[in-house]
Amino acid sequence: MRAYQYKLTPLTPIHIGNGDSLEAYQYVIKDGHLYTFDMSTLYQKISSKHQQLLKDAMLTNAILLRTRVNDLYTEEYGYTSKMKVSRAIEKLYNDKLRGASKQSMQNQLLIQAFINSMNKAYIPGSTIKGAIRSGIVHAIAKEREDVEYTITKNPRINLDKAKTPKWVQQIDNEYFEYNNIPQDPFKTVKISDTVGELSLLVGQTNVWTLKHGRFNSGVPMYLTCASGVLQNADAHTVEGRLVSDDKLLTKMKYQNLSLADIIDDNWTKALHVMESEEEFFERAGYSDGVAIYRKLQKYLRGLDMEMAMPLRMGRGCGMNSTTLNLVNKKRSNRTDPASRMLFEGKYPMGWCVMEFVEL
Fold this sequence. Notes:
alpha+beta, eight-stranded mixed β-sheet, 11 helices, globular
């Protein structure tokens, strides 16, 4: 049994959702911070006059309710969570608070939550493990000459569902030499959820699309993200454990699953993706995107490549990070993804670094 403590440092915004969204009456934004709170606690702490105003609003509509909540709430009443918001989000909130003429405008106040337990955000070990395994498959596929499948645009990118997963599964099975789940050697690797406090930030994301030589943003979405050190030098690092069961591994056909292999393969994938992303932003003429990827690569050059590795996970990672597109022999400029999700119009989503110390 080998155990390692890992430290995970977000480099760019990471969003891992839990399917929940915050309605505007479930939070308040004041002085650059978003507060979530318990409505019953707020009700108990306000005067009887204000209690009646709040009840009337609940029976009227969501727009009046969120306005009353904003008027009545103060930080001294307590909160279940407090996080920073971008200036764009705070401005939107204040502009739309008193009403929305269209349903689409009302939906702009929906904020997608970060996965949490008892109001404490974390990154699941299963998410980390999935990102690691994706790196291994990508690195192996990069060395093969037979990875090819067709992508059609009709009119959107439509991965051939019969072929793409087939290649991923085939490479995975051949590399790890297993035919069914009980024989999967990756079962011997256990990764815990993160512990520690993520630096949460609520901000705006847009999908930017390169079309006819122009790079334009689409409809905004509002996400709660773990901010990264490239946008916030004080962004927090979180921790966890990775345990490899050597005794169980000896019972498998494939017995060479070492931390060194995992790290090396994930470097291969990350550098391949970063090179492709920088080329895309250069082609789009988007200097902010090029600059961020150069900063990412500069940061990575300062790491110990034997005990640290870059990963990409969560929402907005894009097709090149989540499929075998970059190693597909039938890949072409025509079928490459033309869109990228950016946080606040600048930061690509999902990049982080894992560093290991053997215990």
